[in-house]
Amino acid sequence: MIYLTKEQYVSIVNHTKKEYPKEACGILAGINGRVIKVYKMANISDNPESCYFMKPEEQIKVFKEMRQLGIEMLGIYHSHSNTSAYPSQRDCELAFYSEVDYLIISLKNFNNPEIRAFKIVKGKIYEEKIIIRKNILFVCIENSCRSQIAEGIVNNLYWQKFVAYSAGSKPSGIVNPKAIEVMKEIGIDISNQKSKGFQEIKDIEFDYVITMGCGDVCPVYSAKHKFEWKIEDPKDKPIEFFREIRDEIHEKIKEMVLYDSFSEKF
Question: What is the average per-residue pLDDT within 112-121?
């Protein structure tokens, strides 16, 4: 199983379309199936319309960067310009890494690309699942407490399905130290998260936008699903209240995950 963000998926598809009718190719790197980096590689094959071959020097450079970042190769992707998204005999011959996923993007129907993933082990082909993770935006006024807690919970406990972002209408510029403290109590470090405004996320397409009790102060943001959570701002409250708010937010996130799973079936 391999996990892509929506932005990574779009980037890969756009790469294949840009290279058409040549086969595009690239490397996916990350941790535990979660793709962190997409490396677009040059196809130096003598017959790039029907097969791909990556430049060895370019591969060595990518492998070196992966080691420096502490990530590993999770997959190799390439496109089929006129055939289906299924490994060809040549693809099987080039499948040197039995532990990675091979993603094939078919542009046979150029305006509706097909993408599938496979493990190829000693010539045998096993289909793998691709998860395109949904984007969630949590909004509050200062982006210091509630929305930061929500972002941290989702990105650490529910990352297989979602990518969480947070922003504020009047960002404070800091993550509240008490929010950091109560999150550490449940094993989540949000000390590296940033308090930010909407300008920094303006180009992201969201599936969910959740406002956290800030009413009319929060701007209208387009999304497939919108929710207003009436959660009291813990700012300037005792640490015990921060714990209550953390747990309340987590319960609401669990409800949202169930809602998402249910809505996918219909």
Answer: 97
